[in-house]
Design a protein that fits this description.
Elements: E1 2-7, H1 10-27, E2 32-35, H2 42-53, E3 63-66, E4 68-70, H3 81-88, E5 100-101, H4 110-123, E6 129-132, E7 154-157, H5 160-166, E8 179-182, H6 185-189, E9 193-198, H7 204-212, E10 230-235
Parallel strand pairs: 1-10, 2-3, 2-6, 3-5, 6-9, 9-10
Antiparallel strand pairs: 4-8, 7-8
Helix pairs in contact: 1-2
Amino acid sequence: MIRIIKTEDYNEMSRKAANIIAAQVISKPNCVLGLATGSTPIGTYKRLVEMYEAGDLDFSGVKTANLDEYKGLTRDNDQSYYFFMHDNLFNHVNIDPENTNIPDGTKEDAEKECAAYEELIKELGGVDLQLLGLGHNGHIGFNEPADDFPVATHCVDLQESTIEANKRFFASIDDVPRKAYTMGIGTIMNADKILILVSGEDKADIVAKAFFGPVTPQVPASVLQLHKNVTLIADAAALSKVNK
């Protein structure tokens, strides 16, 4: 079941998302948060940092597991998701670095790294709250449109549309990695709760397809319709093609 929270704009979306994540941390201080990257959650992370600085939030017992990482980027590369998470959240709150987990994009043995990451999530006891964004082609994590839903953490070849969407973060399109390690759809669906954030009119078409169309691996996010506890927070622009 998908609960939809409609907001006026990106800032309100970010505030409401941060409130939900904060409530999870407060109610279970040793919770496992599944975290996402990209431009969409930046406002949410900023708000969480503000809550921490105000003394309203304690991350000391929190554990995290990130959705994905580019294959081939070192952790000091400013486009790696390791760098992103530290720059936007981890360096600004009192989370134990030992409790933060991100796939290691420098590991060449994809099968070994993905199996190890999948095992790590199991050892954490699973994810309590998984944060997601939504790609223009319906991808969640880096699970691209496909003939079936990949179950476990795996290495994926990024589609041209995803590479095109991400080129704005790199000096040129040639610098955009072509592969990534990502949690599988099955891994994501195993989370107790899922929070997905969508902002902007350019996402209106895919919001309508993903959450109000048929469940199909050609629109990976559509599988979220089958999860027991999903909250979609989207601004008015992103929901503009939904009759609600």
